[in-house]
Amino acid sequence: MTMKNYILILLLILVSVGCSRKQRSNEGFGYGNYMGYETLIINADCPFLTNGQFNQAILDTTKMYRFDRDTGIKLLKVIQRLDYKYRWYRFDLDMYHNREIEDNTISFYCMGKLNLQSNVNSFIIMQSHVPTIDIDDGFGNSLRLFNIKDNKICSIVSLVYLVKINTPLCPSICIKNKIFKKTKMEEDYFLRNNFGDRFKMKDKEVFSTFKIDENGFLEFTKD
């Protein structure tokens, strides 16, 4: 490669690093829309949250409604069945055979409800997994949105996986005018297919926006 080519590559890298790097993408988004395959009745005194309350929330399990064990098992069964049936994360079948459904290290909490559609019950539910081995302290802490209509699950949306539960949800997941924005940062490299990981660029902000429609289904938006 000539010196002229190296200089050109260097200039392109400098320009790219200096630019704002945002990209809309719905790839790898954990969700499922279902045509009433699973019945789920949730009887919990969960408060309704405004957009501001959701965006400013710092999760605190001591202030959340904790589901009893029977309801927790039902939630876990539903998540596992739907995860595997629709292959959100392409888990190995053996994982489901070997994992005990009545896992006493898993607890479920109701953070609250959102008024997204008049005929849809939208629950924000946190699954907290207390690790039994020395691993990351955020392992298993996840927040999902359950949308239920006529006691049938219409959709489940994975909102965020938490490294630490005492950090604000926004800007990772925010809501405005009933539109969710989910954001994550990804490492990016200049012409990775050609040069591998030699030329690191500014981290890329990948985001997606979506809403819940009148049928309780997730619908991506361009807002």
Walk me through the topology.
Blueprint: H1 3-18, E1 22-24, E2 31-33, H2 51-56, E3 65-66, H3 69-86, H4 93-98, E4 106-117, E5 120-129, E6 142-149, E7 152-161, E8 173-176, E9 179-186, H5 192-195, E10 204-212, E11 218-220
Parallel strand pairs: 1-10
Antiparallel strand pairs: 2-7, 3-4, 4-5, 5-6, 6-7, 8-9, 9-10, 10-11
3D architecture notes:
This protein has 223 residues and is of the alpha+beta class. It has one domain. Helices cover 22% and strands 32% of the residues. The chain has a six-stranded antiparallel beta sheet with strand order 2-7-6-5-4-3, covered by helices on one side. Strands 1, 8, 9, 10 and 11 form a five-stranded mixed beta sheet that branches. The longest helix has 18 residues. The protein is globular, with a radius of gyration of 20 Å.
**Helix content percent band:** 10-25%
Number of strands: 11
Shape: globular
> Could you say which structural class the secondary elements and strand pairing correspond to?
alpha+beta
Q: What distance separates the N and C termini?
A: 44 Å
Number of domains: 1
Strand order of the largest sheet: 2-7-6-5-4-3
For the largest beta-sheet, the strand count, sense and barrel status come to: 6 strands, antiparallel
SSE run: HEEHEHHEEEEEEHEE
Q: What's a quick, concise take on this entry?
A:
The protein is of the alpha+beta class and 223 residues long. It has helices at residues 3-18, 51-56, 69-86, 93-98, 192-195, and strands at residues 22-24, 31-33, 65-66, 106-117, 120-129, 142-149, 152-161, 173-176, 179-186, 204-212, 218-220.
